[in-house]
Amino acid sequence: MFDFATTDLSLAIAHHLLIFLLAGVLAFEIGVIRPSMKREDVLRVASVDNWYGILAVAILVVGFSRAIYAAKGWAYYQANGFFWAKIAAFVAVALLSINPTIQIIRWRRALTADSAFLPAAPDIAGVRRFLWAEAVFFAFIPTFAAAMARGYGAFAH
Question: Which residues of 73-96 are buried (b: 16+ CB within 10 A; e: fewer)?
Fold first, then answer.
């Protein structure tokens, strides 16, 4: 038997936990990627960065499942500007994450080829700029979600 309330609650919990986990990964990367990085830091951030993409995909799957099958229903979300602003912020974060991920992959490969490799200071600074830009756009996601959940942003009919 389909229990709407339980499904809605379960999807909401999963969605929020996934978003907090993604924020944690982003905070971890900002904390670890710094000028004083060591070999172990490169390996740790390379391992954790894999989770960034996995969590992002899981957030999309759970979030759209929630919008379509639970919560207020797809009709509510598709007609809400804050929903689309939230999606745009999420896409901006995803696009900004491409550069750091590519750099981290390069660093891991370079470290595999040369165990003495350490990322160059300009590369680290560039990655940090992207990570902080991600954090700025990430902050808009819960802001837009809060406005949307309270009925703001509905397109006029």
Answer: eeeebeebebbbbbbebbebbbeb
Measured CA distances, 45 to 82, 93, 130 (Å): 33, 18, 15
How many domains in the chain? 1
- Whether the model pTM is above 0.90: yes
Q: Which residue has the tokens 């700029």?
A: 129
- Phi, psi of 80, rounded to the nearest 5 degrees: -125, 120
Decide if 124 is inside a domain. Answer: yes
Residue 77 lies in a domain: yes
Q: What's the confidence (pLDDT) of residue 69?
A: 87
